[in-house]
């Protein structure tokens, strides 16, 4: 049995892995190192993949909404109820667990409790969840339309001021229609959302391949 020498210049040379690459046979070329990939090249290579995945997901979701609008609407109502319950729980936690003024604690508690009650109301039946979802969207559009129109009217330097006013008025009218006739309006809104998702999905897929062709022009070391 051969023992490793304990002293001397050749102590354990056969066990020293630093000598593996110390000498090479004559005529043998060193292995080339892999090319360095710069951050911009890596970002451009990953960007088109992310856009492609989101485009495919939007396209599939849009097709599902158009094929099964009723089921999609019921699923949206259930998800909306879950959102209200979860957001209400977080608001109650913030009311009791954070250092806020008493008035803010009261407002957070009332808002959280109301959100939980409305969320549980959504689970009583599909019609309740659809009705509440339609009213929620309608009130949101109503407030958004008013604020967008007033902001554009009071600031002459607003970019695209005319279009902002026009869009605010359309959003305001859509909110009124949705509140006045929630079930019929939500059905139409579901079809519009399905078509919009399909258009967005196709656009993002085309954009992804365009980004891919442009990404090939980015130097790998950049």
From TrEMBL:
The chain crosses the membrane at residues 46-67, 74-96, 102-123, 130-151, 163-179, 186-211. Residues 11-32 have a biased composition (Basic and acidic residues). One of its GO terms (cellular component) is plasma membrane. Pfam families: DUF308 (PF03729). InterPro entries: Acid_resist_chaperone_HdeD, DUF308_memb. Keywords: Membrane, Transmembrane, Transmembrane helix. Residues 1-36 are annotated as: Disordered. PANTHER family: PROTEIN HDED. This is Membrane protein.
